[in-house]
């Protein structure tokens, strides 16, 4: 009889599985022929994958099948081979962590991460961390930030590991879910995970990197239980820098801005790039202040960058 479990860690040849929501990790290996069915990706199974396995009397269990994924994060290989690497699968929510200050927020970078989440079908919540550093000096800046992203359709949770602001709201969102923490380095991802459960051993330095085929770099991700799994499960990440928009058509980019996707259906021309076309509903909404100029600027930046690569 095959049982199902979730991949919580991958270390080269071995996997750790756990029958989530129970945290009882055990070792497993891959049945040989599964490797052949991995298509374009360099790894057939990633952290978060639900798999069927057969238990063995002695030694590790054997993974016999990967169940269908709800979503998965892919990193394209930098070279022109069509290979890609699956970073994680079945993520219920991404926490896109940022701070207004130290490091100073770069909205185009933040928007790129949000677009990446939309591309892969991962619901995102923004954690505006380190409010202890700027709530006093620039109270209006927090409101401005919230206005931009809430009007785009994202929930923003101001939080601080120092004062504890927002931590319980984040915890409530983690429960019964597998959440990915992502965002620029230094914004406080690992600190937030630690605030949710001080016993989590985030060995960020131990994220193994193996060089495959010269320039292709593989990073292994790992899942951790929050308070034994009672508060859900998290995957910390060193950043989303490597996930380019490669392979995205110009016309496609606006579909990953929820506020443009909503309004874009009313544009006179379809598909519309929302730049020069007459009767563009997105530009009208921009003029009326219904779409934040900061988001539109990020969009134009991405359009320009993608066209550059396409020429
Ligand atoms: N003042 C303040 N510092 C924070 C907060 N959260 C994290 N930090 C600090 O920011 C630095 C980077 O945090 P870290 O969790 O390693 O960021 P990561 O790279 O996103 O994982 C560390 O020195 C933390 O102590 C916060 O809420 N307030
Ligand atoms: Mg970290
Ligand atoms: Zn338009």
Task: Characterize the structure shown.
By secondary structure, the protein is of the alpha/beta class. The chain contains seven helices and 15 strands. Bound molecules: guanosine-5'-diphosphate (GDP), magnesium ion and zinc ion (ZN). Residues 129-130, 132-133, 160-162, 185-191 line the site of guanosine-5'-diphosphate.
Question: Notable features of this structure?
Answer:
binds zinc ion, binds guanosine-5'-diphosphate, 311 residues, 25% strand, globular, alpha/beta, 6-stranded mixed β-sheet, 5-stranded mixed β-barrel, single chain, Rossmann fold, binds magnesium ion, 7 helices, Ribonucleotide Reductase Protein R1, domain 1, OB fold (Dihydrolipoamide Acetyltransferase, E2P)
* Anisotropy-based shape: globular
Number of domains: 3
CATH architecture label name of the largest domain: 3-Layer(aba) Sandwich
Order of helices and strands: EEEEEEEEHEHEHEHEEEEHHH
**Rounded mean pLDDT score:** 87
Bound molecules: guanosine-5'-diphosphate, magnesium ion, zinc ion
Report the β-strand fraction as a percent range.
25-35%
Number of strands: 15
Name given to the CATH homologous superfamily of the largest domain: P-loop containing nucleotide triphosphate hydrolases
Radius of gyration: 21 Å
Biggest sheet details: 6 strands, mixed
CATH class of the largest domain: Alpha Beta
Number of helices: 7
Proportion in helices: 10-25%
Distance between the termini: 54 Å
CATH topology of the largest domain: Rossmann fold
Unreliably modeled segments = 204-218
Class computed from helices, strands and strand pairing: alpha/beta
């Amino acid at each position: 009889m095959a049982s199902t479990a979730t991949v919580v860690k991958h270390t080269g040849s071995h996997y750790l599985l756990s029958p989530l929501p129970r945290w009882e990790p055990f070792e497993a290996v891959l049945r040989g022929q599964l490797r052949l069915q991995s298509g374009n990706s360099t790894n057939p199974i990633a952290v978060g994958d639900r798999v069927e396995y057969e238990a063995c009397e002695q030694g590790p269990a054997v993974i016999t099948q990967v169940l269908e994924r709800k979503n998965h994060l892919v990193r394209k290989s930098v070279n022109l081979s069509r290979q890609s690497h699956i970073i994680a699968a079945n993520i219920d929510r991404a926490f896109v962590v940022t701070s207004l200050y130290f490091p100073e927020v770069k909205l185009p970078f933040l928007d790129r991460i949000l677009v990446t989440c939309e591309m892969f079908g991962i619901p995102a919540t923004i954690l505006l961390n380190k409010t202890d550093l700027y709530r006093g000096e620039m109270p209006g800046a927090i409101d401005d930030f919230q206005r931009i992203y809430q009007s785009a359709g994202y929930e923003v949770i101001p939080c601080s590991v120092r004062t504890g602001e927002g931590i319980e709201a984040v915890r409530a969102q983690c429960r019964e879910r597998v959440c990915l923490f992502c965002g620029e380095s230094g914004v406080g991802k690992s600190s937030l995970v630690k605030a949710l459960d001080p016993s989590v051993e985030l060995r960020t330095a131990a994220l193994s990197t193996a060089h495959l085929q010269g320039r292709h770099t593989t990073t292994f991700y790992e899942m951790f239980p929050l308070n034994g799994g009672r508060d859900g499960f998290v995957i910390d990440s060193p950043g989303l820098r490597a996930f380019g928009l490669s392979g995205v058509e110009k016309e496609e980019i606006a579909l990953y801005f929820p506020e443009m996707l909503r309004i874009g259906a009313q544009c006179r021309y379809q598909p519309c790039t929302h730049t020069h076309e007459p009767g563009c509903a997105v530009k009208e909404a921009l003029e009326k202040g219904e779409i934040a100029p900061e988001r539109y600027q990020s969009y134009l930046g991405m359009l320009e960058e993608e066209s550059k690569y396409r020429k």
